[in-house]
## 1
Amino acid sequence: MNTPKGFLFSAVEAAIKKPGRKDLALIFSEGEAVVSGMFTKNNIKAAPVRLDMKLIKSGKGQAIIVNSGNANACTGKQGMKDAVEMAELAATALGLKPNNAYVCSTGVIGTLMPMERIRPKVSELANNLGKASIDDVAAAIMTTDTFPKTISKRIKIDGKTITISGVCKGAGMICPDMATMLCFIMTDANIEKSALNKALKIAVQKSFNRITIDGDMSTNDTVLVMANGMVGNKPIKANSKDFEVFAKAVSDITYELSRMIVKDGEGATKLVEIEIRNAKSDKDAEKGAFAIANSMLVKTAIYGNDANWGRIMAALGYSGIAIKEEKTEIFFNGLKIVTKGMGIGKDKEANEKLKSKEIKIVVDLHLGKGTAKVLTCDLTEDYVKINAEYRT
Amino acid sequence: MNTPKGFLFSAVEAAIKKPGRKDLALIFSEGEAVVSGMFTKNNIKAAPVRLDMKLIKSGKGQAIIVNSGNANACTGKQGMKDAVEMAELAATALGLKPNNAYVCSTGVIGTLMPMERIRPKVSELANNLGKASIDDVAAAIMTTDTFPKTISKRIKIDGKTITISGVCKGAGMICPDMATMLCFIMTDANIEKSALNKALKIAVQKSFNRITIDGDMSTNDTVLVMANGMVGNKPIKANSKDFEVFAKAVSDITYELSRMIVKDGEGATKLVEIEIRNAKSDKDAEKGAFAIANSMLVKTAIYGNDANWGRIMAALGYSGIAIKEEKTEIFFNGLKIVTKGMGIGKDKEANEKLKSKEIKIVVDLHLGKGTAKVLTCDLTEDYVKINAEYRT
């Protein structure tokens, strides 16, 4: 996979939760980069999230040290000390200014970081820079994910070829608001801080903020984007034509990554897109789509290949949005099954449609012009199993 | 079981969803009764709910005809015609004024009522009055319920012994707001309409409105209470001492029935009470308790005997209520496991506590005087199985 100029990767085994896999990774830019970030809106924020929210005020950075196996959330003052120490260890090993290294963690909540196992590994991590690929980083940050999630895109701006790469992890406790579990985007584009912020915000709004696996918002959601300017284009400004090209590419990347997260939802067998059309407002459309996407009854019906559209109507009904039963239409993968709020006898055909791996449910409310799409997955016995046994 | 004077019951098989069980029932009062009701706040309401909401304006009634197997929801104009016909058939068979018979339905959404199978059964239903017990009615209204739910209480008022009996069904699509799936309360007390309304509202607020199985609010939630006055006490007025006694008994009944509903939640193996203490407000306490109770991650952890309190912290965090991590305490069945927002190394002992069939989780926020209790159950593979296969 093509990665942007000047970015190096590393991953080592620190046996944070248990031995047997690489679980500590490093993303490093050879030059100082402009950094934007978005963080969980959960009132309970993990220590590294609170640390990064401080660091990012500088708008600059050069490294991200990240671990799986432990979220460093609900760990009190010691947790913050540990996050700060991880940042300092990384900065020292890399010869960076303190404050130029960000920290991210994912995994079990409520357990102190095993610093005695992390401390001795940071110099090895720094020394190994360049020996690992972006896919190795993706693998190291996996928790219950079943596949690593990376993507790259190339665009032309100012006569230069710019590369943007993204890596993320997901799987459970996924109902982000402002960001998802962990996502890192790197680019060699030269871009102003305000433009980078804007591109990230647009991208996250229609991707990570529009997915849900289980309706549980994490304590650790973080998206960081680093732009090191190493291709030497003239700086991209917000509201320019170049900005549109750049922002579109970032949005494509976050959308593809968010699809991967949902596809790899814990226990999921199907990727489901819920689209609400012609709601009274965009806000209504989003609220209605999330109510359907988070309904356990809708999710289990999809798993069971049962086009039980009554559960969709019930979810729309309790979502609190404006709805007229007698105007509502529902489509499963292009097949109309509900018109004027009533079934039209196509449930058997719809059950067949549900056997595909990708399901698109469209609800047309015929009330206004509001629209929204939300990605989710089905709910299976395996989700229950994975989460009943997560800490054992 | 003792039932109130003047109430008769009946149940027959109409093979509404499939043959092999009684699925059509009748509750009849020999004298006209004062009737109060509370109904789902879901914007999509089943036809019988909309019909009963009209009928109850009279404040009077004498019969309830109720079926399982079909919810008569999302059935358009024909659905309303069918509900009206069911009421008329019952009124005619019983020699009642039209408008004195209420109709309730529960079961699959989106399928027209098989009126050709119901029509010929209504006179049999009326003729059989007195041959069935309240438990037979409870059995006839079950869907995925595994046991019938009934309760009776006796109180003394004005020197008379008053009996209050309740019957309900639950199991899935349970997150009521104003009422639960179906619940009928009968009493031989003589009580003014306004007092009956008030007693019901108080009772429902702390019982059916404080339970959740899957967070899915039904289209059919209905509670009806009938008071026929047949013991001949002088009428109970609101704000009297007699009212307190009566209201307490109704509250006890709805609380016990709501516990039965949660205990019999689809696939549930455990009854879980979530109590929030010392929240900033009662509203915060209720919101926080529901966020925990509806968290799939909390529910699966409880199923897996994993005292994963981090998921409780995360749910509190995203619920949006006021919280100070460093003040929060969590107890599992009386055992403190979190203090000042951090674990105190008692997770193994807490895992043992989780092996009991009844779990009490207390969260003390140490922020104010707000308090709330919500009942829920664990989330198991069987919930998924039941709901993946519900219509097959």
## 2
Amino acid sequence: MKKIIGINSSPRLKGQASKLLDISLKAASLQGVKTEKIDLYLYRIEPCIGCVSRDQRLCRFPCVIKDEANKIMDKILESDGMIISTPVYWYSPPGHLKNLIDRMTALENMIEIEGRSLLEGKVVGVIAVGNDSGAYSAASQIASILVTMGAAVPPWGIAFYARPEPADSNKSILEDAANVGRVVAKMVNMLQKIEWYDPDILNSIF
Amino acid sequence: MKKIIGINSSPRLKGQASKLLDISLKAASLQGVKTEKIDLYLYRIEPCIGCVSRDQRLCRFPCVIKDEANKIMDKILESDGMIISTPVYWYSPPGHLKNLIDRMTALENMIEIEGRSLLEGKVVGVIAVGNDSGAYSAASQIASILVTMGAAVPPWGIAFYARPEPADSNKSILEDAANVGRVVAKMVNMLQKIEWYDPDILNSIF
Amino acid sequence: MKKIIGINSSPRLKGQASKLLDISLKAASLQGVKTEKIDLYLYRIEPCIGCVSRDQRLCRFPCVIKDEANKIMDKILESDGMIISTPVYWYSPPGHLKNLIDRMTALENMIEIEGRSLLEGKVVGVIAVGNDSGAYSAASQIASILVTMGAAVPPWGIAFYARPEPADSNKSILEDAANVGRVVAKMVNMLQKIEWYDPDILNSIF
Amino acid sequence: MKKIIGINSSPRLKGQASKLLDISLKAASLQGVKTEKIDLYLYRIEPCIGCVSRDQRLCRFPCVIKDEANKIMDKILESDGMIISTPVYWYSPPGHLKNLIDRMTALENMIEIEGRSLLEGKVVGVIAVGNDSGAYSAASQIASILVTMGAAVPPWGIAFYARPEPADSNKSILEDAANVGRVVAKMVNMLQKIEWYDPDILNSIF
């Protein structure tokens, strides 16, 4: 059975990002996948110290920093898809989530060590919820980064909500968040496990 | 046979965006799909006049503006995937490409008319090439917009290059651009035609 | 007397972007500056053809394309500040406005011809108004581009509004838009005319 | 004498972001201002816990979290301008810097407590340096956020560099970084201390 993890990056464990994630994971499970929820603020995550800038081969999984980021990355590795649900802090993800993303360089940079990003082919969905502007901006930032780490984004895989009214009183964002779970699971079930990036591709073209 | 169209949004018909697109389409065709290239600057595309803000049901395909945008949208509709290769004008797509994207609201807004975006399930890849900074910014902007119109982005579906040296002297961007074609075609071949967004999803959850 | 021009980049000449701009220009005039309003959709603006990529010295003001962009650029040159009020099309400025910005390379690129951007020291404010998400994203994109062309942005010089209710029923965005006019005018009155960028600066440092 | 602080947000205390910042602060000091440099990675900064979402009046300076963020905010408060020099982690500021920015909500949100953001009227410059794409994206994100907190950005106040070669071997980025210091200091010297945002502005307009 395929597996999808949900990451709630809000300090509020029962806040709006968390609730929308629950709905999203519920919708995913209806497509026949296992799900697991992670509350990011329960994990200690130190800032990335950018070993990769010193020597590209220094950065590898597991990361040398001995906090709890590797635990989360273990869970990401076991899963086929990932849904990130985030509050919007200044039109972008909170620093705590950004720290996790920075640290995930250890997964992506395995390209330099083993020739393959450990995130390649994972399917990613993003939900961003704020009470002012910037929700699109935060969601698209996360999704774009993950594509350049090797992940895929399904149709309607980005949902965002930026209004003063609580998200769970708005039918439209509830539908969008649930559909993020649906489409991530649908795509996880459709995609075969292949080596997506072909490092020798130019030989077959020229 | 599945089909992928490539859109060169550079005024230079044989410039770098165009060459990278050629390589990308070549790589796509090696995966067993038909390809077609469109030079956007050969088409007259007027600015969107935002009918949708007046009345959400006014905006539908074909667009009421009688220029050549509908011709391109016809080609998009016939295809299963799309690769957009663009120069970088001020860290973002040129206004001419943005005009096309704005006009593609006529495809996306069929949600309001027929319950379904005409772009749903199409696979999109983006290549951005500049001689200064901003290539990531341009590429991610295009990809994110298209996801929120209903398209999917495959692993490594975004490539960007921002250096003063010509792109075709840089092996890494040639590989990245070729792989954009490969992964768009791979994903086009893997994805089934389904209705991705379920408007009644909440009924199955609550 | 200093002068500020306002650019309404909405096709709706009496729509929300236009109304907020009127209020903003009114607030500016209360600071003792002249104002003028331009409706961008009344001007024909062709796409930039990127001469600068062929030869950096080819792009200069007035632009070689014989449409009405030079007229607007004439007005920008006569002014000390500029307020751009825009609707949000897919989280970013409409292609028509982006075409103007692309064409304004002819003003910025005078660095290569005469050693000085013709936009240097102008003060810029931005108002973005949409009925969905993306208003911050559109506003910040415009402001950031203009800073890298040589313009300054005053405190609170960016205002954005992204809600389904009409902007003119929302006191907060009316205040923000008015303050954009106020701060642009305040800063125009405070800034001296100097050469901001010193091309020989390294000589005084090392 | 006016004062400008420089924040190096790289874990490398003598890396490229740090060196460019030194040059920038040197150029600032030549304009007759005091300068002070802060190495952000020497400070412990916990993630923001978003009190403001629970009750808008809970978030105020000094922040309730008892780490070293308040020390940095003290230094920001004493200064008239700020130059942030940052490495680029995934096209955006490192999580550690984002955590500081999130925590600076305590300064901005004094609007709700005392009617005035404590960052209002401060002048901000940004330098972003990476060895791949995304430097513009990181720099503009930081600058835009700070404008919406009440800061101003001078002409040429954003500099970015994204190439594999070391920044200090590139004359153009050295000039740009030095000019960031120059223009921030120039603007600090020109701007008067005023209340920029007028909360009663509509009374004078309607």
